[in-house]
From TrEMBL:
Family per record: Belongs to the TRAFAC class TrmE-Era-EngA-EngB-Septin-like GTPase superfamily. Septin GTPase family.
Protein known as: Septin-type G domain-containing protein
Organism: Umbelopsis vinacea
Keywords noted in UniProt: GTP-binding, Nucleotide-binding
SUPFAM superfamilies assigned: P-loop containing nucleoside triphosphate hydrolases
Amino acid sequence: MLLNDAAYWQQLFQNDTILSVTQWLVPMLTGNALTGKLRCLNNMYFSSPSVQNAVGKLHSSEWCPTVPKPCPFLKFARHQRGTHPDLGPWRSAPPQQATPSTKLGMDALPLQSVQKANRQPFRLNVMVVGESGLGKTTFMNTLFNTDLVSEIVPEEPTKTVKISPITYELIEGKTTLQLTIIDTPGFGDRLDRSEDINPLVRYIENQYQAYWDAEKISSIRKPTFDTRVHVCLYFISPSGHSLKAHDVLALQELSSRVNVIPIIAKADTMTQREKKLFKQTILQDLSLHAIPIYPTAYSEHHETLEHLEQHIPFTVIGSEVGLQKDEKPIRGRQYDWGIVEVENENHCDFIHLREILFITCLAELVEITHTRHYHDYRASHLRKDGRPPSILECDEEYDRRIEDARKSISERLQRKDEEIRQNFVQLARHQELALRKKEEKVCMSHRFSFQHKELMEDIEREKASLASEEEAFLQTLESRQSVKAGKR
Ligand code: GDP
Ligand code: MG
């Protein structure tokens, strides 16, 4: 069935002449249509009559006899999951075309970029890696046509790889280039070379981390000084053989973190044929070990770079000596038999490499460093705590997790409800018991006070009868005494 065929969708909508809808609906359907996006599509866009019309056609047997009626998009989305970059749930409808009635002068907009570029210096951080003596320092001086790196004396073999970044400011006309050269003397000097790559990897990652840290602090976010490695020039010894094991290891480690451009050093030591064969061998090795190199593995403008890509890996010659040829100053190496010229494309690929670095791809190198390598670094760190690699992959997982979370919350709430109810019942029982006891007590005290009252009344009554008896007795006594006194 044609459900996952972009051309089918295209034709489906074009036949219906709903071109405006086709413009955005077809990419959406053939791109990563997530469950969430489909919901959004259903909710938002399907309210548009033209889309409803298209969807109606889609469901009708005339247009799409085998599409299941309930929701073909959902099925399509599930089928296409993970095959295209995720466009995100924030995707909105494309802008509508409008032609201004009067000239706005928009064609001058690119000038703003030029002015901005003139105001702000360009930055390029270049790491040079390769065994000592391959001519890295000489090459960097040749490349920038100035004595940037002063040491030319052979370096003492060091115990560890030293990383020494030096920043230069090169000014040409109105343009300023802040260039940082990160030399790595000591790389490959030891017998056991497997460890040599670690300091380089650490350095690269430290720069990503520093940039990330700076980004988190809003006050220093704007002038964040970019020390990330934008390009790594990897110098390969002109041996004519396959890549050495430690070169493969280093290239693998570096190319997974930065843009790597492989370079064959000291091209003047090889014949034309040897250079050609060596290039083929290296390219085979790179593809065998799945080592992505710049620009082949990255650039989106392959057609504009084809004339440069055919020279990869670039052969170079370094020379800091100015020579004369036909009374013109040139850079080259003087031998007994003649001169090899740095900028002669029959002698080496120096001019092509320079074009890639400064004319065609400087901005792209910086951009890829930010959008690919730096984000890969951040993503790998963020994923450490178990986050899924992309929204796309977590789509189903996410729904399930939300469902699980919802379930567990409702269970927890139910348990809590039950607990509260039990507590309440318990409390009520306690209260009831206490009240009952109180009532009994009150009753008791009532009864007691009633008895007390009765007793008191009895006492009072007895008191009164006693008093009357006493009075009667006294009267009797008095009358007897008076009778006695009369007799006398
Ligand atoms: P590094 O250790 O890689 O920085 O190498 P250097 O730049 O210090 O160069 C080491 C030696 O190689 C010096 O004597 C240079 O003159 C020489 N050298 C540099 N580039 C070339 C080159 O392209 N061809 C040849 N034949 N020798 C070179
Ligand atoms: Mg050096």
